[in-house]
Design a protein that fits this description.
Length: 135
């Protein structure tokens, strides 16, 4: 089943020069880039994207992190794209993520974990609309 999903290459990925490496992993898996742009976001956009987390204790440092510098936001398309991206990304905590995953190979943190991927078809639809409008 062909799906679309939203991926964010977070400020740590951009700062560390990993954008090309991470994009290559998604493309090597057979996913296609439908839309992509580099941008910075403010606290309001972060709050909108992470709406379900705004009231949680971990959120203020996450907001500070995602608004700390440029990020790359993209829409990927492919067979079961949501699950494929989540598998490629690895566990949220980079210290626990399996080797061979993006976080397992490049992240040493739970917060600065390089990437975001939509976790369901509903979130993918909401997030794609939030970042790219009617795509």
């Amino acid at each position: 089943m062909t799906q679309r999903t939203l991926v964010i290459l977070k400020p740590d990925a951009v700062r560390r020069g990993l954008v090309g490496t991470l994009l290559a992993r998604y493309e090597a898996k057979g996913l296609s880039i439908v839309a992509m742009e580099q941008r910075t976001i403010d606290a309001a956009k972060a709050d909108e994207h992470y709406a379900e987390h705004v009231e949680r204790d971990f959120y203020p440092p996450l907001r500070a992190f995602v608004t700390s510098g440029p990020l790359v936001v993209l829409v990927l398309e492919g067979d079961e794209a949501i699950e494929v991206v989540r598998a490629l990304n690895g566990a949220t905590d980079g210290r626990k993520a399996a080797p061979g995953t993006i976080r397992g190979d490049f992240s040493l943190s739970n917060r600065e974990n390089l990437v975001h991927g939509s976790d369901s078809p509903e979130s993918a639809e909401r997030e794609i609309s939030l970042w790219f409008g009617a795509l």
